[in-house]
Amino acid sequence: MDKRYEEVKAIYNSRQQLPRIKLKMSPMLIQVAKLYTLPIFDLLHNELDTSLCCQVKRCHELVREVTYVIGSYGEDREYIVKGNVKVNESGGDNNCREIHCTCKKFESFGDLCGHAIKALDKLTIMKILERYILGRWRLDAKDCAIKETATVVENDLKLVIAAHYRDLCPRMVKLATRSSK
């Protein structure tokens, strides 16, 4: 119950307060501020700060794949970030389809690490890729869930009838109770 209360409280605070954006011109932070709750925004803000402390030590660029060896300032440890790139033949910027880091922070916790953000920056990608925006922590997570279930229900006639029945039965009981008084 406490976990749910804290989650509701975080969503309420996200809607009542503006996120604290320190880098006001960062397209990535502006995107995240509009999508996520404040605690998740703060996590990603810290990862962006971490990416500013990272440096690309080695870079291998092939036609559709890039590999960066990234190290943090003051640390000896290096991380390998690989990305799949869609080549834009019209001469514009390339589009990154996916990116993976050896620290596995996205796979473990669900937020991009500073190393991956540094690689996106090196690829001149200014916003987080859509596939890395998790619906669980979005401000509109409940709206998205309702829309998804509504489309599933409409496809099956038996489920539509069952949904109407579940909706009408409690109404009928309330009406019968009220009329009997």
Write the topology of this structure.
Blueprint: H1 2-16, H2 27-35, H3 38-52, E1 54-61, E2 65-72, E3 78-86, E4 95-101, H4 105-109, H5 114-122, H6 141-155, H7 157-180
Antiparallel strand pairs: 1-2, 2-3, 3-4
Structural commentary:
With 181 residues, the chain is an alpha+beta fold. It folds into two domains: 2-137, no CATH class; 141-180, no CATH class. It is 51% helix and 18% strand. It has seven helices and four strands; from the N terminus they run αααββββαααα. The protein has helices at residues 2-16, 27-35, 38-52, 105-109, 114-122, 141-155, 157-180, and strands at 54-61, 65-72, 78-86, 95-101. It has a four-stranded antiparallel beta sheet with strand order 1-2-3-4. α3 packs across α5. It starts with a helix and ends with a helix.
